């Protein structure tokens, strides 16, 4: 198969997985947005994806994401920034990203707001909540106890729009248990922020569990694009 045929076949399989997972959970497949993660893959692959009907593209690294968004500005794409975000790069990310999934601390909000305002645009943001044990080194995400505070600060920002929560299942833990905890955190959060309905959770290996527990966005790379190439 050529590259287009390979991506098309994998994309069809992934869409079937999502549809079956949604059906099993008593949900409609249309409730689930597939964000195709294109980290380290070339812009040509993104053009193929767009031709196959993909509109939501995820990137982890600012420099790569910025370059791809500029090169592919002729395409009707929604760019999701899903990687760890440094405060000194947040304003630049807000200039091209349509949604940032990885807001894990209040310090990021000012730069994101300024970057979005400079371009006269609204930026969708999700708060990344940690599902890791408190003592785990390098844990990513905000503690659940901080969500209300971060949400309140987002509400005061001129150009930020709170969309929901994002999380990653901890390594070595049954994702079903991790996402069950996330569903409880989300339920409590929605009681305070009823409009923040997005839940970004689940990747190639655990998307069924994420959908079962309410994910509205799944972030999938290798199941569609294949093994990730080495860091260029």
Write the topology of this structure.
Blueprint: H1 3-24, E1 33-37, H2 43-51, E2 56-59, H3 62-71, E3 78-81, H4 90-93, E4 99-103, H5 109-118, E5 123-128, H6 147-155, E6 160-166, H7 175-192, E7 198-200, H8 207-212, E8 217-220, H9 222-225
Parallel strand pairs: 1-2, 1-8, 2-3, 3-4, 4-5, 5-6, 6-7
Describe the fold and architecture:
With 232 residues, the protein is of the alpha/beta class. It is built from nine helices and eight strands. It has helices spanning 3-24, 43-51, 62-71, 90-93, 109-118, 147-155, 175-192, 207-212, 222-225, and strands spanning 33-37, 56-59, 78-81, 99-103, 123-128, 160-166, 198-200, 217-220. An eight-stranded parallel β-sheet has the order 7-6-5-4-3-2-1-8. It is globular. The protein starts with a helix and ends in a 7-residue tail after the last helix.
